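Lab notebook, bench 4. The sequencing result for the construct came back, and we need a structural model before the next group meeting so we can plan mutations. Quick request posted to the team channel:

Model the 3D structure of this chain.
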Amino acid sequence: MDENFKLVRSYQYSSEAQIFCGKLESEGVEVYLRDINTVDSNPIWSNAVGGVKIFVKSDDLEKANKILSDISQFSVNENNELIKCPNCGAEEIEMVTSIKDTKSLLAFVFSLLFVLMPFYSKHRYKCNKCKFEFN
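Done. Here's the predicted structure in token form:
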């Protein structure tokens, strides 16, 4: 059996990585998380180190990719149904952080000037098909 580990996915936050790690482990796939302590120590470093990485054994790579691809990457409502775009009706909706309003923009600039974590951000849904943003 090949004991080499291969990268399956990378996530910006450790909480995301641990959710998907748990799913893989529940399906019998051995998982190794890398850079989790670095990102947990200082979340700003996440992009610098490439996020929290999930590795699996080479023999399980195809199985892991299949398991993770079956999980929807798009936003759902409280009834666990895919959210539909009010503009075009597509179900490929993601939650994004927006700094288009004045309060968000000022918070962003202030956090850059004083090297702080942003203390305010506005979350909106964005359609991947028509790029329409909505609440």
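The chain is about 35% helix and 25% strand.
Will bring this to the meeting.
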